[in-house]
Amino acid sequence: MIVVAGEALIDLVPERPGDRLGPLSPRLGGGPYNTAVALGRLGAEAAFCSRVSTDGFGEALLDGLRAAGVDTSLVQRGPEPTTLAVATVGADGAAGYGFYASGTADRLFELPPELPSGVRALALGTCSLVLEPGASAYEALLRRESGRGVFTLLDPNIRPGLVPDADAYRARFRSWLPYVSLLKLSEEDAAWLGGGVESWLAAGPEAVVLTRGAAGMTVWTRSGPREVSVPGERVEVVDTIGAGDTVNAALLHVVAGRGPLSAAGWRAALSYAAHAAALTCGKRGAQPPHATSLRTPTPPLP
Questions:
Q1: In the prediction, which pLDDT does 90 show?
Q2: Which residues contact 6 (CB under 8 A, 6 or more apart)?
Q3: Hey, is 11 helix, strand or coil?
Q4: Of 54, 110, 47, which is closest to residue 73 (Cα–Cα)?
Q5: Can you list the residues of the chain whose pLDDT is less than 50?
Q6: What pTM did the predictor assign?
Q7: pLDDT of residue 292
Q8: Which of 80, 208, 253, 257 is most buried, judging by how many CB atoms fall within 10 Å of its CB?
Q9: Which residues participate in catalysis according to the annotation?
Q10: DSSP assignments along 59-113, one per residue
Q11: Please, are residues 152 and 180 in contact by the beta-carbon 8 Å criterion?
Q12: pLDDT at res. 259
């Protein structure tokens, strides 16, 4: 089983991109939530670990997880409201966000008991590692599960408007790296965080995957191939919401729990992730693809 820990929220997405005062459509979202749904749709055994509101939005979020086949037994519940993220979508489909997160349910997440012995991977990232007091609980979960040998993926997915102290967050990010197996981040995240691939690899991760939108993605590893890149896939972009989360899920689905991959293995894994992300960009809101819509439901790795 792969456990995804972090926030579940509602994205309010413009029905007409570029219309600042136009109607907004509520969509199930949150980076970790999207990753969990994508894993379920891709056919992976997945569970979601978070604190979700008992309000109507919270019930809808749980329904979405169950519909994707995601285990919700690790979800904590609370009466606090659901976080809202108001999206702005540019002409190129790129999305920006404003958050309404004060006093919301996911901020009050508490460290759960040790995860089941059958868990082979844990994924974390986005707002959940910024907003206290929940951020400290998620950080403790990362350190504990990494310490008992669980494969871990970190996607910082930076939302600068939520970070109260950028330098403190950057230092905290570096403190997580010894507990991370796979670091995945976008070019924008990398530029904001500073440092670089060499310093990140030296701090702990076995591999770093950098996504470049339509230009594709690259992996650097500490053992095996030094650097492998694949191009992006051409697609008519509706918006990019959830594309990076789909990359997380696709990589976890095929890489977690395996030994070091060859260059051909990484190329197959990255190409699979790029294809899944392209399909996500072709739909409005975070709508990861189902395995049946992919060229290869799960690629055999050389």
A1: 63
A2: 30, 31, 32, 33, 50, 106, 123, 124, 125, 126, 127, 128, 129, 138
A3: strand
A4: 47
A5: none
A6: 0.92
A7: 86
A8: 253
A9: 245
A10: HHHHHHHHHTT-B-TT-EEESSPPPEEEEEE-TTS-EEEEEE-TT-GGGG--PPS
A11: yes
A12: 81
